Amino acid sequence: MILGGAARAYVCTEPVDMRKSIDGLAQLVGPLLKGDPFSGSLFVFLSRRREKVKILWWDRHGFWLAYKRLERGRFPRPEVLASRAVSVSELSLWLEGVDLLRTRRLAHVHALRVS
To answer: For a FRET experiment, which of 46, 53, 107, 111 has its CA 20 to 30 Å from that of 100?
Structure first.
């Protein structure tokens, strides 16, 4: 499993039953996230108490499902992430407990040629 920097993640703000497996979560991608589960994007689902997270993505041959349960604490509120697609690096920071409301990003550079 290798996720490129161009991969995007979409976070669901509605709590999801963590007993759902790949098929159940894939069926929620359209109604809750307005996405296509086969797009290669990452789809992030949280439990009601925000101590569990599942990430679903398609890699051309099948689905991957990652699951993390915190032993203490909760994941930061997902509303900041859910307002837009986020990068894999932002998702990784969020999964480590970094509150992205308190961080500042560098502006994107849109290069057209090498000088």
So the answer is: 111
